[in-house]
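Obj.: predict assembly geometry.
Materials: sequence records (below).
Method: joint structure prediction, all chains together.
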Amino acid sequence: MAMARSFDLGRILRREESKGLALIAPPFVYALLLLAAPLGAIVLFSFWTQDFMTINRTFTLDNYREAFSDPLYMELLSRSLRISLAVTAITVLLAFPVAYFVSFHVAPERKSLWLFLITIPFWTSYLIRVFLWRVILAYDGPVNGTLVGLGLIEEPLAWILYSANSVVITLAHAYAPFAILPIFVSLEKIDRSLHEAGRDLGESRVMVFLRVTLPLAMPGVLAAVLIVFIPTIGDYVTPRLVGGSDGTMIANMIQTQFMRLNNAPMGATLSVLAMSMVGIVSLVMIVLTMRWTRGGKSK
Amino acid sequence: MKGQGLKAYVILYLVFLYAPILLLPMFAFNSGTVIAFPLQSFTTSWFVEIFTTKALIEATRNSVFIAVSVAILSTCFGLFAARAATRYNFPAKGGIVGFVMLPLVLPEIIVAVSLLVVLIQAGLSTGIWSVIAGHVLICTPFSIAILQGSFANMDKSLEEAAIDLGETPLSTFRLITLPLVAPGIIASLLICFTISLDEFIIAFFLSGNEPTLPVYIWGLLRFPARVPVIMALGTLLVALSIILLITAEYFRRRGLRRAGKRDVGGFL
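Observations (raw C-alpha cells):
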C-alpha cells in the first residue's frame, strides 16, 4: 500500500518533471543551436587560419601567438578593459544615489513613475543617442559653450571629444538604467526596521549606511557592476562615433578582421580573448564581493 | 538638508539622462545643415524628406517586419520558458534557464560574430531572416523576465479549480491562464518590438543587402548633409518608443491590478 503510493508520487513527480522539460525545450534548443553552437564555432575558428577566402583547418596556436606578440592587439584589449572598468565604476557610483533616492525618499505609489522616467531615455535609438553625444561634447558644442560662457575655462576643451574620455561619458550614459534598476531592487528588499535598530543603538546616519545599507545592497551593486561591465567591453558604436583613434576598442578590431581584412580566424581569436578577459575579471569581482560581504557579517 | 542635496543631485542626473533626447527635436526643426549651435530658423523640411527617401522607407519596412516577427517568436519562447520556470521543477533547471537568459549579459558583438561565422560556413546567405534569428536570441530573455513576473503573480489555485470543475488543461489555459497573463504578453510583445527595432550590431553583421533602419542610419551618419534628416527621423522614433512604452507600462499595471498585486518596480 505504502509502496504503491510512493510509486504514484514518483510517477506524478516524473510527469511534472517531463512537463517542465517539454515546456523549456523549445527556447533551450533554440539557444543551443543559435548560441552554444556558434560560440563553439568561434573557439574552433580561433585555432584555424585563413588565406584570402579559403579556411585552413589544421589546428594551430599561431593566431594566439600573433595576438599576444602584436602590441596593437594587446593595447586594444587592455584599453577596452580600462575603459570598461572606468565606465563601470563611474556608472555604478553615479547610479547608486539615484537608486537610493527612489527607494528611500520617494513615496511608494510614485516609485514606478520615477523608474519609468529613468528608463525612457534608454529605450530611444541607441545610434542617435551616441551621435548626439558627439554634438554635445563637440569643440563648439553646448558643454564647452556653457563652460566658456560661465568663465570657468578660457577656451573650449579639446580632450572631451574623440578620446577615451568621451567613450567613458557616452557609455556611462547608455548604461545608466542597467545600473540603477538592480541596485534599486536590492535596496527595496532591505527591512526598514534594521535602520531604526541601528539608529536606536546609537549609530550615526553615516555608520548605519556603511554597516547596514551598503552591505545589504551589495548583491544589487554586484549585479549592476556585471551588467554594465560585460557588455561595454564589446561596444562597437560608441568608440567608432566618439572615440577617435585614442578611443578605439577591441570590438572595432574584431569587426575589421571579419568584414574588412577577411581574417575570420583572427577575429575569432580576439573574440575569445575578449570573452576570457571579461569572464576572468567578472569572476574575480564576484569572489571579492562575496568575501567582502561575508567579512562584514562576521564583524 | 541631506535629503535636499540628494534630490538636487538626482535632478542633475535626470538632466544628464535626458540631454541627448532634448537636443534631438531642436536639430530636427532647425534649418541649418550643420549639427551645431547656434540654431537657425524653424523648418519641417527634414520631416518631409523622410517620407520621400525610397531607401529609408525600404529600410523601415524591413525593420518593422523583423521587429514584428521577433516580438511574436520571442514572446512564444518567453511564454514556454517562464511557465516552465515558475510552475515546474525539473533537473538542471537553474542551468537551463540561466543559459537561455545568457544573451542578456553577453556582448552583442560576440553573438553577432559567432552567428555570422556559422552562417557563412553553412553556406547560407544573410538577410532579414538571419537578423530575426539573432534578435529572437537577445529578446527572449527580456520576454522571460517580464512573463515570469506575470506567472509568479498568478494564483495557482485558480487553474486547479478550473481542472477540478472539469475543464481540460487546454481550455483551462485558454479560459484562466491566458487572460491573467495577457497584460504581460502585450508588454513583452511591445518591449521585444522596441528592442529589435533599435538593435544595430547584430543587424549590421547579419542583414546582408537588406538593411534595417539602424543600419541605414549608420550609413547616413557618414554624410554630414544627411544628418538633419536623421535627427528628424530620430525625433519620430523617440516619440514612437515613448508611446509604445507608455502602452506597455499601462498593460503591465493593469495586469498587476487584475492579479490583485501591489505595484513594485518597473520592467526589469
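Conclusions so far: Chain B touches chain A through 89 residues (CB under 8 Å).
To do: check interface contacts against the pulldown list.
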